Amino acid sequence: MPVRVDAGRADIAKLTRLLRDGARPANEQFDQDEHLDEVIPKPWGYEYRAYVDDFFDFWSLHIDGGHSTSVHVHPRKLTYLLCLGGEGVTSGLDREEIPVTEGTILRIAPGAFHGTRSTGTEPLELIEVEVPRNKFDLIRLHDDYNRAGTAYESSAIEEPRHKMRKVHSLPHAKMRAQTPDRRFRFDLRTGMDIFYRPQERDLFYIPLHISGVVRSDCEILTGHPDDRRRPQTDKQYLCISKNI
Known about the structure:
The chain is built from three helices and 18 strands. By secondary structure, it is mostly beta strands. It folds into two domains: 3-142, Jelly Rolls, CATH 2.60.120; 165-242. Strands 1, 2, 3, 4, 6, 9, 11, 13 and 14 form a nine-stranded mixed sheet that branches. A four-stranded antiparallel sheet has the order 15-18-16-17. Strands 8-7-10 form a three-stranded antiparallel sheet, with no helix packed on it. Strand 13 (165-167) and strand 14 (173-175) form a beta hairpin. The longest helix is centred in the N-terminal third of the chain and has 12 residues, at 9-20. The protein starts with a strand and ends with a strand.
């Protein structure tokens, strides 16, 4: 089950103060912001889209050892962080640090300030699930790289080897086949296929149900043998697995 990070009184008070002082989250233009389909360089590493449609937006984050994202907030969207590998901690305004290791799932509510630091010698590898889609729904509070108050990045690095491709079986969807370093792969699978043919290399199954958007809650399953939850056999999932 995911660790919940909810917006508390301190989060709401800080967000209210920032908005009154002029902070304003932007809105993504789906058909115009094409740089979001490439690799986005960050001072702490890089990130790139793994899957996107009109409602869901999944990103892969590569945080170098000893580096940290900004402490920031998404006022409108629900976020999940799924750890694929490495070690780190996630913290906020008035909450204790949450350890992040392979298999960790964090559910971060809209309005909850948070930042993640890679504490190991190896990079921290995360998947960020954002619902509903809006990459520019972001306010940075403070940052190790002087980005506080700045908008989301406007530049990108082209990744010709593993481009985003259209998914013809789903409306307005695009995805990558694998990460640029080829350590992890992304596949669309039905719940029935997952139930009858689980793979040892599978890490997470993310449901692509519209109910997750409407209810602001996604039941993300894991490939761990102790996870006894059953996928919905008639639904589609994005499967994230180790690329053996």
